[in-house]
Amino acid sequence: MKINWKEIETKWREKWNENKDFETDPNDKPKKFITVAYPYPNSPQHIGHGRTYTLADVHARFYRMQGFNVLFPMGFHYTGTPILGMAKRVEANDKELINNLKNLYDVPEETIKEFVEPIKIANYFHQEIKAGMVEMGYSIDWRREFTTIDPAYSKFIEWQINTLREKNLIIQGSHPVGWCPKDQNPVSQHDTLGDVEPDFTEYILIKFNFGDYVIPTATLRPETIFGVVNLWVNPEIIYKKVTVNNEKWIVSKECAYKMEFLDKKITYDGEIRGSELIGKTVTVPHRGESIVMLPASFVKSETGTGIVMSVPAHAPFDYQALVDLKKSKIEPELSIKVNAITPISIIETEGYGENPAKETVEKFGILNQNDSNLDDATKEVYGKEFYGGKLKSNTEQFAGIKVAYAKDTIKEWLIKNKHADILLELTNTPVKCRCGSECVVKVLNNQWFLNYGDKDWKELATKCFDSMNILPQEIRSEFNYVIGWLRERACARQHGLGTKLPWDKDWIVESLSDSVIYMAYYTISKFVNDKTIVSNSLTKEFFDYVFLDEGDLDKVSGITKISPDIINKIKKEFHYFYPVDSRHSGRDLVPNHLTFFVLNHVAIFPQSNWPHEIVVNGSVLMNGSKMSKSMGNIIPLRKAITDYGADPIRLAIIISAELLQDADFNMESISGIQNKIETLFEECSKLKSEKLDILEAEDRWIKSKTQNMISHVTIAIEKMRLREALHDILFAFESDLNWYMKRVNAKNRKNISGILHEVNSSRIAMLSPFAPHIAEEIWEKLGHLGMVSTSRWPEFSPSNIDATAIQSEEYLKSIIDDIAKILKVTKITPQKITIYTADLFKSKVYHTILEKIVSGQTNMGIIMKELISDLDTQEVKKNPDFVQKTIKDILSEPTEIRRTKLESKNFNEKNFLVNELAGIGKREFNVEIQIFSESDSNIYDPKNKAKHARPFKPAILIE
RNA sequence: GCGGGAGUCGCCCAGCCUGGUCAAAGGCGUAGGGCUUAGGACCCUAUCUCUUAGGAGUUCGUGGGUUCAAAUCCCACCUCCCGCACCA
């Protein structure tokens, strides 16, 4: 039967809406506060976004059915720069973007025109995303919705950031950023052409003395200063003479330009040709030795300072340039100097001899200094020396130190002695701003930072993490690690949407800093939205009183002009819902948002309001590969809902992967799920609730199995192992139902509708958090009154598990299995099957052995001795084989079954088989099955098989 | 490099936390059968090796160890993937 998903989903969404089922206010019940990272509305959400929200919704719905008063709210994060960047691109008529908006996102053309205003973009996608969330059936309390640029929210952020500053957690300092010189703005990935992240490294500038001048050379390996034998200058380049903070430097034009942004004072004094420098000498800092400047074509003016120090023992470029120079025609005077140069080896590395550069150049078969393989050769030498090398005795006080460690030590030593400086440079040049101009690195020296490097703060956060539930458990160590390396983090920027820094209105609170404690704001936004309070009254005193229980009610009321009753009502609401019981997010937010979320909570709130749980999920793949605009494999969520229905999408996302794994979304999984649900729907539609007075063995069994399933599913969801839970409900349980149907059909029973109704009602109830719409529909078809989403979660009670029933069905299955195996091996067509169960004596021995094994004794010799020493069982010595096999039988069973058997000592195998095996056996194998106990007097045993019978392992004769 | 995760029977993937129901679920593929005018869809059966009695042998990256018992616990190694920041 085909399901009209859309019709059913609309029907139930309307009912939830009418009943206000998900509007949550404080009441007498215990609460759960479930939150998810709110979306950034710069595009419609796709299936990947849907995963996190769906997981959280399942969580919320599950708790609701378990009797909690669940608050699941949602907001929209307008703060940030990407939307601003988009607006600029729309204004610039960027074809790629407009094409994406039009075709990928289906934005109407008139709307796109309005997108030159950033707020219009945010508003549009806000509504788009919200509509998708509603269509997905998320059980959100929409009365609390807000955006992060609402005036009231800004008041809240001001309070947050002021509070942090009062606690001395916000500091000012300098910081390098990617920078557009034209826009006078920092650039991030979203602001560049081709979406490249500006990536920069720190070079050490070693300052060589050249008369009155300083010639700085840029290097990543300051330790090689001990191996410098000459400098490389490109004779083609015209260098600049500049004054840098009162020193006279000679550097390339490009270098001088870069330094203008690096917090240095630069004045231009003149020029000098590279060729003029050739043959002249400079002195090496610290050592005071004179070395010569030589020509090299590999030296580029745009890299570093345009002059390079030469370490031919360890740098392949330098070694090769020297070789080239020796081969070329140069003035005799210079030639003498060149020939006098010997590489100085300063690093000892396993696998290398005196000159690693030479060895590597030869290994790579380098032809000349413009050979492209030189980059790889350099990488290889640097890599090996950096991690495996040690400084030799000619490096003075650094002798014996590992290179990896020496790098920083020597850098600091050089800078301290004014022999060196720092140059920051983009590594992935050219990086172009969307305005077209080339970006640089800029040092901002009035930047505001959250001091996440603070030890006490970290300690507090660690304490919080230690007491938190982190799901899945594997991700916990990652949080500890992040806390470890976290340093100061810029918390303000100069453009974008958001809240201004209260004490420095040039800055806007950065988007990862204004989204860390906003869960608290959900308890207030409700009152803002219904106009109970207005943003102007949200002062420091108000927040201090409501959130921190600080200050005097009457005073607060006086200042805010809000009545004491209302203030207290809001405060009560906050303290009812807080702390956050569960925070959901994708794993990409682990090293930033989720960690900051904890850091900011512990900084601002008392321990009683620290969050309880974090749930982290992996991303969604589309047919096995990452979703990306360039691949064109992004499926907008709303389109998917239209095409397949919300419930199938929810189920497909959840069934395809466990929490932290990437979920692979594909059409097969969707249609598989649809089929499954359609079948379930059809079956359930036929069932009627009816009472069955006498339960048969298989009825008791399936009811027990249902209890087991309830237990498993409940435990799995508590740990957010939703894939496992859903799999149990939909698939794993199916094999139990199949067995049940087999048993029932063998007996030609017609009175099972009631049992199936009961069993499936539990299944549908448990399915309801996962596929809420269709579950309501089936619930209604099953004849239940009321909504399944507000019904009680099926209760697990161990007393409803009939251990004997479970064990005896297993017994029955194993006999049928054995018969099938024999038939398969022997390939005979059975005429008659005879079963012999073990006698009382064997049963007694069996239980004695079972007891011993359960109590831990598994040694055959000891068990045998103990059996013989007992009068009742001593006869067993005639049949040691039986004891050995029995031990093996028992050991190959799960421990629960062993215990069950211990509990049901009086289980009568023969009686059970006479009642239950004949029918199903006839059905399966199409022959009569006869059952004896081996001690029966009238036994039919032509092949003498009966004596092989063991308890729970009857002997079988097939003829 | 630092940190994290993973390696399972042709492929994808479950099981590992909590050792015994594990020759190991499910899906795909393959083979046979049913249904159908045919195809598709769907359903059934088989799918490590050997075996004419329910059995045995060899398997879960490699090599060790603990245990009566290891895919599961411990140690070492190999290979692959992800993150390392001012960006939502």
How would you explain this protein's 3D organization?
The protein is an alpha/beta fold. It is built from 34 helices and 30 strands. The protein has a five-stranded parallel β-sheet with strand order 2-1-23-24-18, sandwiched between helices. Strand 8 (238-244) and strand 9 (247-251) form a beta hairpin. The chain starts with a helix and ends with a strand. The mean pLDDT is 87. The chain binds one RNA strand of 88 nucleotides through helix 13, helix 16, strand 19, helix 21 and helix 24.
Tell me, what's the shape?
globular
Radius of gyration: 38 Å
Count all strands and give the number.
30
Number of helices: 34
Strand line-up of the largest beta sheet: 2-1-23-24-18
Strand content: 15-25%
Query: Can you give the helix content as a percent range?
Result: 40-55%
* Category by helix and strand content: alpha/beta
- Mean pLDDT across all residues, rounded? 87
The rounded distance between the terminal residues' Cα atoms is 46 Å
Q: Segments where pLDDT lies below 50 for 5+ residues?
A: none
Give the biggest beta sheet: 5 strands, parallel
Topology:
Layout: H1 5-19, E1 31-36, H2 47-65, E2 69-71, H3 82-91, H4 95-104, H5 109-114, H6 118-135, H7 151-166, E3 170-180, E4 185-186, E5 200-210, E6 213-219, E7 230-233, E8 238-244, E9 247-251, H8 253-259, E10 266-273, H9 274-277, E11 281-283, E12 290-295, E13 307-310, H10 316-327, H11 332-339, E14 347-348, H12 356-364, H13 373-388, E15 390-391, H14 403-416, E16 420-426, E17 440-451, H15 455-467, E18 469-471, H16 476-485, E19 488-490, E20 492-493, E21 500-501, E22 504-509, H17 522-529, H18 540-548, H19 553-560, H20 564-577, E23 582-586, H21 590-604, E24 613-617, E25 620-622, E26 625-626, H22 637-644, H23 646-655, E27 663-665, H24 667-685, H25 697-718, H26 722-746, H27 753-767, H28 772-781, H29 803-826, E28 833-837, H30 840-854, H31 860-869, H32 880-891, H33 895-903, H34 909-925, E29 929-933, E30 955-958
Helix pairs in contact: 1-28, 2-23, 3-6, 10-12, 12-13, 15-16, 15-21, 16-21, 18-20, 22-23, 23-24, 25-26, 25-27, 25-29, 26-34, 27-28, 29-34, 30-32, 30-33
This protein binds one RNA strand of 88 nucleotides through helix 13, helix 16, strand 19, helix 21 and helix 24.
